[in-house]
Specification:
247 residues, alpha+beta, 6-stranded antiparallel sheet, 7 helices
């Protein structure tokens, strides 16, 4: 498979691409697990790694997030496929100026002379078509945004754009931690029981036995390092909190 890691994209499948995950996990204490992912050749192993990144991204996306998806909060259509990034994630607005259809670049007037290193690895959304494209780099001197691909339809001068900053390092690391955790083949059936609130079970004769129950943990499928990283990034709300207010 070929994963789509463009932020806020309607067809996004992962929050992290393979090269980023490989770079982070190369120095991980359990890197041998990542390097030993099964496959007949390198391509097959890479596809399997991508499957783990997709699964990890989906698990994080369905965790109790601190805010709704960014695209939904801004009323974008089509909606983003993954619930991360969330409302409050930093972005900039601007307009296209002197667009040249040669190559995957878009000049944005409001970026000229601005330090924009945090946009590399983020995404650009064209206001006239709603197309979302990955940002490779930005030339602060000219305001030129280099994209992962050429826009399907050439934007006209003056077209509004939204530039979404890349994910926080902690969120990217959380995806990688969750992916390598899944490679280690955790007992997911135990996690499912934990999510239902099952703390322990005992067996007895003649149909006896008992089940110790507690309130369900809706973050049970996230590993401890991923959860801590997401909490540090402010992405998670308390698993047992409830939204309250005046009626």
């Amino acid at each position: 498979m070929s994963i789509n890691s463009v932020l806020c994209h309607a067809l996004a499948t992962s929050l992290v691409d393979l090269s980023t995950a490989d770079a982070y996990l190369a120095s991980h204490p359990d890197r041998a697990l990542w390097e030993a992912v099964p496959g007949d050749d390198e391509d097959a192993r890479n596809r399997e790694k991508e499957n783990y990144l997709v699964a990890a991204s989906r698990m994080i996306s369905r965790a109790p997030l601190a805010a709704p998806p960014l695209g939904r909060s801004l009323g974008w259509e089509p909606v983003q496929a993954l619930n991360v990034p969330v409302q409050g994630h930093p972005f900039r607005v601007g307009t296209v100026a002197a667009y040249d259809a040669e190559g995957p670049t878009v000049p944005v007037s409001t970026l000229i002379g601005v330090a924009v290193e945090e946009l590399a690895g983020g995404a650009l959304r064209l206001g006239d078509t709603g197309e979302v494209l990955g940002i490779v780099s930005v030339d602060g001197a000219t305001g030129t945004v280099a994209l992962a691909q050429t826009p399907t339809a050439a934007p006209t001068n003056g077209t509004s754009v939204v530039l979404i900053e890349r994910l926080a390092a902690g969120v990217i690391q959380a995806v990688c931690e969750q992916a390598i955790y899944l490679v280690g083949d955790p007992a997911l059936h135990l996690l499912n029981d934990r999510e239902r609130g099952v703390m322990s079970t005992t067996l007895g004769g003649a149909g006896g036995g008992s089940v110790n129950m507690d309130g369900p943990d809706v973050m049970g499928e996230l590993c401890f390092p991923a959860r801590r990283l997401l909490e540090s990034a402010g992405l998670l709300r308390s698993a047992r909190s409830l939204d309250v207010g005046r009626g």
